[in-house]
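Notes continue from the previous slide.

Worked example: a multi-chain complex. Inputs as given:
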Amino acid sequence: MAETSLADAAAQVPMTDTTPLVEKKLVKFHIMSAALWFSIALLAGLFYSMQLLQQWPLPKIEVLSPGRIRMIHTNLIAFGFLTNSFLAMLYWTVPRLTGQRVASKTLGWIIWGAWNAIILATYIGLHMGEAQAVEWGETPVWVDPFVVVGAILVWIQLYTPIVRSREKSMYVSLWYFSAGFVWLGLTYIMGNFFPQYLVAGNAAGPLLGLYIHDLVGLWVTPMGWGMMYFFVPIILRKPIWSHALSLVGFWGLAFFYPLQGVHHFLGSPVPMFAQYSAVISTIAVEIVVVSVIINFFMTWRGSEGALQRSMPIRWFWLGAFCYAVTCLQCAFQVTLTFQQVIHFTDWVVAHAHLVMFGVFSFWTFGMIEHLWPKLTGNEWWSPSLRRWFFWLTAFGLGIMFVSLTAGGLVEGFMALNLTPRETILQSMRPFWLTRTLSGLSIIAGWSCLMVNMVATARAKRAVSHVDTEYSPFETVEDEEVSIGAV
Amino acid sequence: MERFSFIFLVAGLGFFTLAFMVSGWIPMLPVQDLEVRTVEQLAAKPPVTFVELGEQYPEAYAKAFPGMSSQEAFAEALKTGHKVYIGEACWHCHSQQIRPWGGDEARFGRRSFPEEYHNELNMPPLWGTRRIGPDLIRRGGKQSNDWHVAHFFNPPDVNPVSVMPSYPWFYEDDGLTPNKKGLSIIAYVQWLGSWIPNLDETVYEVPFLEETFPASTVAGPRRPVATEQDAAPEDGFDDEGDVWGDGGDAAGDAAGDAADGDDDFWGDP
């Protein structure tokens, strides 16, 4: 087996090798670029919401057309913010979980540069009107091949330590990562090449649904769950409640999640057997994801005080709560009864924000809250700003979710009643106005974090952070670094 | 089971492939025999709205489509308009898909059927997942060219509550004459569904148009089509079923018609 020979090779690393296990600078740079893209994405979202109030702030400028800004919003969230954050998370977690360094530090910088160049090219391409008609993958067609190359580089970089690992069993985070990397590449190829070049119309539609769904379900979700399963036990200093239950969650996700893509196009000319099977597997996966939610809350049980003491835990807790709401919603809204009303409305927009922002971005915030002092060596500059960040963001998302969900129901029922579109648009104005205001709250919260991150990095308050969770001397030979030993 | 290779092969590759087969490949089978029309085939008979555009804005038309025949110009307009439609994210606020429920059929007409999407302009299909504006799959011809020219420049001028963005860059500097982008997007929107014959409301239950509408019941395109070939002498009723207008091989059409009756609605390849 190739694994064995690689493990042997790793065993021959000289004991004097003192290169750090984790390349902290890479983690830091991925977090910083994620923050930059997220800032732009938030502004894009705010501007686009103003278009729906007939208050577009930048009129008559072609490259800043509202529709282009809308696509920039979603693409920068998925690829700029979340994927950069996940790479930071992977550079931190995978070496610790496997006891092995990533393949190459140089390759790490190449991936950082290449990935951000891809996002920059996408950003410019969307401004130039070069979008591709694939939702969540509007990346121009001339960028698509480079994304696949980027995914392959990630495989080389991060599969290497997993394959080299000498741990007897793999912690559940690694299960998610092992499958997630290959899913990213396959999903991207399926969604961006097949419908563009090979099949048309009704044959391509299901693939678009699969792409929308798999990008969230087979890239963002496994990375997010792996991240949660790594950081929550570390911060709470106790093992997860049930390893077995976490594996149920993994196999359930792997089997049921990719079967559901067609549920994004219920009512389309796709054959009904495909639509029904997507509905059924969507309801089935909800049973499985409940295992993750149970696992989180049972791990948290007994450490309730951590919600007050630890900001990261607060973020992970709120994210898990949003996840429970999301999943409950999924099981109902996927039925054709709900679809009649909500399919083309803002209900779906609310749901998407709850998943991508309320769950996975919140967990990412938890990671940033936890890691930034360890990366900079300084304690957070302002504890007060951390709380402001939390409450402004949580409040903003809550209001946004409620207003868009309610607005979606109003819109859906009015459409069902054959209300004229003009009346529907007028009825939506209060909901859209509330949404814009909630967006302002989120941006204010994010500004607090930005100020705090910069000030912490510049060590305005000279309180050094003492890392009590990770040994600064950890090396390949240090058995303690593996979470498997927890 | 708790080994990397097992997870990689079974969960990573295996389940993904299984799902691709089940929810990607199998749904392809019912439509695998449908021919995918090229833009040139779609543009063989430009609708009257496009001809009108050329007459209304002769200088802009000549500048946008220099030296092209009507068909070539229409093909070029469809391609450019399609690109603008995607690049401006029209498809994020307008669906191109009429569902069989939710009041869609009462508002926009008979439910969508697969044949509507089997052309190069639906690679990828533009079904959309949000509907702030109306569905557009059969919007062509519902408004005049003049309406579109005014509407794209600033939609609230036409409909005060509209939240559609304005597109002044679809126009020359005078703000009155559409440029190539403007002509093309109007041509594309006016084309949408314009080639579909009148849909009889009594035949909802049959999924495929081909079975639903033998050519003898097809009354011809909903709107007249105008090309140079219209001047040619009428050779019977068969051409009226020939909405694809494979004008070039009239002889082939005639032979095909003789062989398989009037069943020429989707055109013989």
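Summary box: The radius of gyration of chain A is 22 Å. Chain A touches chain B through 95 residues (CB under 8 Å).
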